[in-house]
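Agenda item 2: flavin-adenine dinucleotide complex prediction
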Amino acid sequence: MALTADVVVVGGGVIGCSIAYHLVRRGVKVVVVEREALGSQSTGKCAGGVRRQFSSSANVLMQQLSVRLLETLEADTGVDPEFRRIGYLFVLTSDREVDEFRRLLPMWHQFGVSDARWVEARELRELAPMVAGDDILGGTFCPSDGIASPHAVTSGYANSARALGAKILEGVAVTGVEHSGGGVQLVRTTAGDIVTSAVFNCAGAWAGEIGRMAGISVPVEPYPRNIFVTDPMPAATRDHPMTIDFGTSFYFHPEGDGLLFGMGLPDEKPSYSTEVDWTMLEAMAGVVEHRAPKLAAAGIRTAWAGLYEVTPDHQPILGPVDDLEGFWCACGFSGHGFQQAPAVGHLLAQWFTGERPDLSLEIFAHRRFATGNVEPERNVI
Ligand SMILES: Cc1cc2nc3c(=O)[nH]c(=O)nc-3n(C[C@H](O)[C@H](O)[C@H](O)COP(=O)(O)OP(=O)(O)OC[C@H]3O[C@@H](n4cnc5c(N)ncnc54)[C@H](O)[C@@H]3O)c2cc1C
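Presented output:
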């Protein structure tokens, strides 16, 4: 007998688990299909950053909601998300960056991020004692942003979804999405077919493949990113802010008794490789020595690599697609999906069950790639 479901969620990362939880809470019959283990892919490789300092107001609003939902996650699911408000600091070194971030501050305040503020270079170095460099022109700092645990958030949503009746299949891959008469009918998996009229594509870096199974173009590409964690560093306090050197994308934050750091490169190529690229240490060396010399002197304890899931405008794709009834997207988070997961699950579950979503998701619509109604997110690293 084939399984039946109101919704099949493809992918059990933080996004799929949040959506499953918020749907099942509203009485929807959900099956989650995860090829590997829950939260083991991009979610399990992520740096855990949670911030509101985005260039697009839709992302600022989404993050305000996500932070509120993180605050109630323990009451809702019984799991502490380990949200530590160590603050988020953008270090700025060019006049263009300064103009842009000074322009964004009033927008952040307008949408409720009231404690985000401008900091001059001297104060910035006091706030973030690991930071060095006489090229710093200033920065923006939001003390109530911070870091949370991807594992805790994912398992909080997954365990509660399961307890509320969701069926979660691990080690099972989706291999096909069948449709007829313009609507989804069946999801094929390595463990058999699931009869359904709705699919949520939460397959992260593989979202394009799920799109192709349904005949829908989902423009998400995988970009490998490396994370390195240092040996214990007594100079790095546990409350050192998450720090982003915006011009280079080099970032770091406290991790255990050391620091976690990473950086993107301008000439990255799409790939599904998750082998650690140790040559990155050399590629980053000049930047790290200049911006955080104490970090540069530390030994490396461990490293891993995961995939960013990147869209052309660095915005996620959220909601139903026009060309196939019942095919919904929640993918393409372009490196900031962990922090958006609480809001995305809540808003899409509202939408799916006929409630009016608390926020407009129009700029995230799949159709924007056809209509050109695109507002790129610029504060991505
Ligand atoms: C190095 C790094 C640092 C990051 N730092 C941050 C950060 O600080 N803050 C932040 O907000 N975000 C960060 N991100 C981004 C964040 O990790 C992702 O945006 C987020 O985890 C996306 O969640 P997801 O559930 O969509 O994807 P995933 O966690 O990748 O889940 C998708 C799942 O789909 C499954 N799947 C794929 N194909 C199939 C199939 N055919 N059948 C069944 N299952 C399938 C996969 O196995 C996978 O588990 C970072 C990412 C990386 C790589």
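Discussion summary: The chain has twelve helices and 20 strands.
Owner for follow-up: CH.
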